[in-house]
Amino acid sequence: MAPGETPPTFHGAQAPRSSLSAWQDYDADVPEWGIGELDHAGRWIPHELPGLLVLAPHPDDEVLGAAALIAAGLRSGAPVRILAASDGTGSHAPENIPADQLARIRTAESEAALDELRTLGAGSSSGLERLRLELPDGELSAHQAALTESIGAALEQMPRGTLLAAPLSHDGHSDHDACGEAARAAAAEHNVALVQYPVWLWLHSAPPGSSRESEAAAEVPWSAARSIPIDPELAEVRARAVAAFASQLGTELGTPVDRGPGEPVLTSHMLATVLRDQQIVFPAAPLDFEGLHAGREDPWSVTSRWYEQRKYTLTMAVLPRRRYRRAYEPGCSIGGLTQLLAERCDEVLATDISSSALEAAARRVPESNVRFQQASIEDWPAGEIDLILISELAYYLNDSQWAAVLGRAKTTLSSGGHLVSVHWRHPDAQAYRSAAQIRADLWGVPGWDVHAGYQDPDMLIDVLGPSGPSVAQAEFLD
Q1: DSSP of 446-471, one letter per residue?
Q2: CA–CA distance from 203 to each of 4, 16, 468 (Å)?
Q3: Residue 38 near residue 68, CB atoms below 8 Å
Q4: Average pLDDT of the segment spanning 191-197
Q5: Cα(220)–Cα(327) distance, rounded to whole angstroms?
Q6: pLDDT value at position 291?
């Protein structure tokens, strides 16, 4: 593919495959991303964001696809870095404008756009910086290894727990897809959370299930989609930031590559489709849990192994209370433990990111006091909870996700409630941390006591929560 070309799937002068109203209807059903919530001014702020690194294939992608993420970082006071993969010199033919001159223009436009976003910052504007990699526009797929290395180097300069944002791996433009894959590799190597943002997806695709959905979009993990609301202040600032990209909004530098006479890179219908009232992002899952459950009825052998059946019995036996009011079980899989929780709890919310797992769980546990919901660990439920069960899950959470879980659990666990942790002690190549590390982190939560536990060569079970009486003290001892 020559510099400046876009794949045959879509380019900006074409009409979108689906209408704006169809995407707005789709947006209405996408759950809000649970790592943040609206503040008193109606602005979406993350609960915890030590830092944000945004990978942008071309100048303007950081605004079109990630403005809400950048705003969230700035508003929470986190350091934000934009890693500019290319200078966007492929947007116009070199016979119309020399590449080095276009690079200077597009770099200045991006800086001007970021100046607009800096006005959203909680404090010093020095929290937002832009770094140039100067890789060739239109050829990023040939430089994927260099991209991965550069992302890793940038992450090493950021605080622990930094969130990495990059284009969707199936966005429909080769440069975007290459950036998405490079970010996936870097996130896995450096144990960081990854969220992917679409740009061209909204133009070459249609909502999932639509007859007009493109073949490329069939690979998109639609069930993982989460929304960030665009408040009025952010909408105004984002509009001013987009206006800074004059070279892409007009034809003063000549007709852009693959556009007809008088057609800019960023057309009005393209901007209307991309810049909606919600920014949709795709937080990446560490493992293909959907694939595991879709391919096998019982991927963890919970119905056939004595180890699993014994583990469930031990887990229920260490619970200090006979009955709980409201229980939360993230990562419920096919509902083996959910079935037992239903007998001891008035209400159980069981979640999983896999729709196949939830279908199997619902068949196994039809009880009316159990509600199954497709959600990630980041979609933490609102309200007070008196039993939180983290079973075989914490080692698959990256550092920032695990820190967020500890924080949300502490704030939502009731005064007499308990968190139960159940984890495998043997090595797991896909795990971010061991059972021993999970135990150490839980034991270090301020204000929590260890109420019960069990360990053998295979597993660790811990029951923690705010200080309270023992079982005997609660029942019959003075």
Answers
A1: TTEEEEEEEE-SSEEEEEEEE----H
A2: 18, 4, 56
A3: no
A4: 88
A5: 32
A6: 65
Q: Six-digit token pair at 458?
A: 């295979």
Domain boundaries, the chain: 20-284, 292-475
Local confidence band at 8 (pLDDT 50, 70, 90 cut-offs)? very low
Question: Cα-flanking dihedrals φ and ψ of residue 69, to 5°?
Answer: -65, -45
Assign domain 292-475 one CATH number from 2.60.40.10, 3.30.365.10, 1.20.1300.10, 3.40.50.150: 3.40.50.150
Rounded CA gap, 139 and 261, in Å? 25
CATH number of 20-284: 3.40.50.10320
pLDDT at 151 exceeding the cut of 90: yes
Which H or E run contains 133?
Answer: strand 128-135
Residue 76 tokens read as 């929470």
Residue 471 has pLDDT above 80, yes or no: yes
Condensed to tens digits (0 to 9), the pLDDT of residues 114-145 reads 999 999 986 554 589 999 999 999 999 999 99
- Between the CA atoms of 336, 338, 340 and 343, what dihedral angle is there, to the nearest 10 degrees? -150
CA 143/CA 22 separation, integer angstroms: 36
Q: What is the pLDDT of residues 198-207, one digit of tens each?
A: 999 998 888 8
Contact 223, 355 (CB under 8 A): yes
Q: Evaluate if pTM is beyond 0.90.
A: no
Over the stretch 22-37, which tens digit does the pLDDT of each residue have? 999 999 988 888 778 8
Q: Would you tell me how many other CB atoms lie within 10 Å of the CB of residue 223?
A: 15
Return the structure tokens found at 455.
């360990």
294-309 mean pLDDT: 82
d(CA 221, CA 287): 13
Task: Output Rg (C-alpha) for the chain, integer angstroms.
Answer: 24
Strands (E), 276-412: 278-283, 324-330, 345-352, 370-374, 385-391
Could you give the CA distance from residue 144 to residue 130 in angstroms, rounded to a whole number?
20
Sign of CA dihedral 134, 137, 142, 144: positive
What pairs with residue 32 in β-bridges?
A: 227
